[in-house]
Every structure is written in C-alpha cells, then in structure tokens.
Amino acid sequence: MSQPVITVSNLKKHFTVYKKQPGLLGSIRSLWHREYETVAAVDDISFTINQGEIVGFIGQNGAGKTTTLKMLSGLLYPTSGSVSVLGYNPWNRKSAFQKQFSLVLGQKNQLWWDLPAIETFLLNQAIYDIPEAQFRKTLNKLVNLLDVKDSIQIQVRKLSLGQRMKCELIAALLHNPKVLFLDEPTIGLDVVMQKTLRDFISEYNREFGATVILTSHYMDDVKELCKRVIMIDHGKKIYDGLLSNIISKYARNKTLSLVFSESVTKKSLTEFGTVKNWNGSSATLLVSRKEATKIAARLLESLPVQDLNIEEAPLEAIIREVFGNKAKSA
Amino acid sequence: MWRFRQFLGSVMSLSVWSVLFTSQTDLFGYNRSEMISYIFVAALLQGLILASALHGLAQRIYSGEISTLLLKPISLFSYFAVEEIADKARNVFFTIIESGILIVLFQPQIILPPSEVFALFLLWALGGVLLNFLFSLLFGTLGFWSPETWGPKFLFFIFVDFSAGKLFPLNILPDWLQSILFFTPFPYLTFMQTQLFLGKIPVDEIAFHSTILLIWIILFTIANKYLWQKGLRSYAAQGQ
C-alpha cells in the first residue's frame, strides 16, 4: 500500500519576466531597454507521496502550487531537480504515463465549449483507448454519483458553473487515472456543490486507491479530504506533515469558552488570560496552549463556572498567522 | 464570409482578364483559355494549399490553450494534421461548388493536362500542402516567446499574395526576379502547380523544381523539430 508513487527532489522552476514601466512612455522605453528579473516560482522542493494518499497543497496565490502540479504533469520543464510519477519522468510525455493520470485545473476546461459534454467524453474514450464496456460502466457510475444525467446532452456553454465542473471531472476520470492532480476543483462553487465534489473525490480515492494531490483556497476542502498537507510559501516548502500537527506546531493559544452561573466582572478574568469576549454571564479567553488545562482548573476553583470548553484555534486562523508571519519576515 | 471574399476575388479576376482578352489574344504568354484555366486551378489550389486551420496557433500556444492537448496521450502534430485535413476538406468542397457556379457563368474552356502530368501535379499539390503545414507550425512556435505574432504573419501573407501567384501569374514579373523566386518556397505554394497543370514547365526543369520543393520540406521539418523542442522547454502554460 505504501509505495512511493510520486517522488520529487530538489525541484526548481525559474521564470524570466521583464518589468515594464507603466504607460505609453514605459512601453516605448522597453523597446530598447528591458529590465529582466528571474522569479523562482518553485525553489528547491522535495517530497514523496505514497499510493492512495490524498495530499493537500496549501499556500497563498503565486506560492508555486500550480507550477509544481504543472511540472508533475509534464507541462513545464523544470529548471533543475527531478520528478518521478508512477516511475515515469512526466516531461517525456509517454502515452503509457499520460493514460494513468489526470490534471484538473479549476479555471481551465478541456470540454468542447460548443458541443454537449458527451461529445468530449466520446473523444476521450477514443484518445485514451477505453474499451466500450468499461467506458459505459465508468460513465454511468460517474454520471450517477455526480447527478448530471440531464446535463451531459446539453451544450457545455449553456451549463451552469457547477454542472460544468462536474462534467470536467467526469472527462478527467473516464480513464480511471491512478494519479489525480486537482487544482482548485471547487473554486466558484456554492457550499452544497463543494460538499458534493469533496464527497466524490474521497469516494474515488477509496474505490480506486488513487493518489490525489489537491490545491484549494477553501480550508474545508483540505480539512475534510487531506490527512497530510504540504505548505508552500514563495516557492519553498515550509511544512510537510499531518494536518493535525500543524495545530500543535503553530498554534500558540487555545480558546476557553466559559458560561457562569452568576455574573462575573471582566477584571476578575484578566488574570487568567486575554479576554476576547465578555458579557457578564459568559466569556471567551485566549490562553497559552501549555497552560490551558491548569488555567481551566484554576478557573473552576475560583469562579462560579457552569460550563467550560477548551477549543483549538481554528485552522484558518493558524494558517493565516503562519503565512502572515512569513510575509512579514520575508 | 471568408469564402465569399475568395469567391468575389475569382469573379473579379475572371472579369478583368476577360475584358483584357477582348482586345488581345496573347498576354504574358497566356491565351484566353489558359488564363481562365489558371484562375480556376489557382483558386482550387488556394483552397487546398494556403487555407489553414493553424493560423491562430501562435495565439493558442501563447495563451496556454494547447496545455489540454499536451496532457493527453496523443501526438500534438497528428492532432494538428487532422485539424488541417478537416479544414481543407471543407474548403475544397466549397471551392468546387463555387467553381461550378463560375463555370456556368463564364462558360470557359479549361485545358486538362495528360494523365502523367496530372499525377505529378497532384504530387506537387501534396508537397505544397505539406510545405504550408510546416510553415504554419513554424509560425506557431513564435507563440512560445512572444505575443506579437500578428506583424510577421501579416508580412508573410502579403508576400505570399505576390509571390505564390495568388494575385497574378508570376510570369508577368521580370525574368531575373522570377529566377530568384524559384529558389524560395513561395512559388511552390500555388504558382508552380498551376504552371505544371497548364503544361508551361519544360520537361527538363521538372526534376529541378521537384528537388527545390523537397529541399524546402526537409529544411522546414528540421527547423520545426528544433524550434518545437526548444519552445516546449520554455513553455509557460499560462492563462490558468
């Protein structure tokens, strides 16, 4: 079960971009004098991913997530370092390799815009050499799971974003890829649709033992699907491990929610920690993680506490803080 | 619309040359029926050789649109070739219909070549198709490095208009210019084929022209191989 399917070592991708001064004058100047700048989109990243894992890539816009996925798919040629996916070098674009993976870019579509989605499915059947029986079986299953039976006969341009995204996913999965790269698969979808897609990805992973890398701006996607996450910032890997460990590694505080049986003054709470909310009969306190249990015990002793809850800070807040600090120190 | 423009172009050429031939029987070595045959054959060859589905290729590369193709287990070039064939089939179909209308309107006498010349004509036409395909692919590689593909392309089209025999038979140009042009690939994109069809190429020159056509095809194949390899390495898969 735990063979490495994806191995990435010391991967780098540098882009050369030229800076242009704004306005017409800038455009004219740039004709003979251009300032070039090298941008390290991916800067010395290494990791391995085993079969059947769902790994979340998190990072801010422009952190290098999509660039990494594009290198893993063989679209981009790395500046240096090596990539191996399913034992292949993706850049060689061997068809044996291409038949075993799929890249879904949330904002880009492979569906033929003016034709019903079913036409793209049939084209993919021919391109990927999918036997008729297997094609019908997979298609039926995917169509039922995603509930798009009525949409696949309609011109893609007339579908809603959600329906289109589901059809994109079907087109990408018809050949039962063993490796799946999903870049923002739920972008622009409403919460119900996001949930449907998440359930579906999780089901696909379970059923086919597929290895999945997922990037998303929605922490819910990552929380629900990925045990392991890789955090990327300015092209560098800053964290690789269990999602649950992020909290213990980066969170400095816990939140204590208190409900009192009698009114309590705000002043009497300040000695225990930072008071975030207070209204006399209830309060929330921020306390240091290490001290949380001790402080809770002291609170129970000294104040008329009716109910007490110790909560971890929400993941979003921690990640915001991690990237925020990075940005400040950079 | 594009087809209609082509059609009007043919009507215009036919009318102009018809008027010119009312006062003279021989112009630049063409008699009336030869000139009319020239116009018909040239129109057909333009539909076959110069029409291309790949005019927007550079833009498709620059915008990152070819990414979806690059991810699939298909050869990029076979895919483009199929696109090209489909486009040409449609063009030739319409050109034949249009020619039918023109034949009814102008009732021309069209000279048909002997069958062995016709076979060679088809071969050269195929060579022309291949040459233009390679040309389009080569232009496409510009998209790997620059968004400005319109300028060079525009110049190329103007040049083709003059040097491929699209607007007029090249025979009206001075001899020295003609002999220079014959070493370039352009006349092989329509003009040479029409000359072969009309029996205006001396037998002893056929081998020479065939060789030039072949050399250009080989050169363009090599240039394409090199530039596509280089281009794909710097491909940025943008726009996503």
Structure commentary:
The complex is a heterodimer of chains A (330) and B (240). Chain A is α/β, with parallel strands linked by helices. Chain A has two domains: 4-247, P-loop containing nucleotide triphosphate hydrolases (Rossmann fold, 3-Layer(aba) Sandwich); 252-312, 2-Layer Sandwich (Alpha-Beta Plaits). Helices cover 38% and strands 30% of the residues of chain A. Chain A has a six-stranded mixed β-sheet with strand order 5-6-7-3-8-9, sandwiched between helices. In chain A, helix 4 (117-127) packs parallel to helix 6 (161-173). The longest helix of chain A has 18 residues, at 191-208. Chain B is mostly helical. Chain B has one domain. Chain B has helices spanning 2-23, 32-50, 57-62, 67-70, 76-106, 115-140, 150-163, 175-181, 191-197, 203-234. The longest helix of chain B has 32 residues, at 203-234. The radius of gyration of chain B is 19 Å and the shape is globular. The A-B interface holds A 15, 66, 70, 73-77, 93, 95-96, 98-99, 102-103, 105, 107-108, 110, 124, 127-128, 183 and B 64, 67-68, 70-74, 232-237, 239-240.
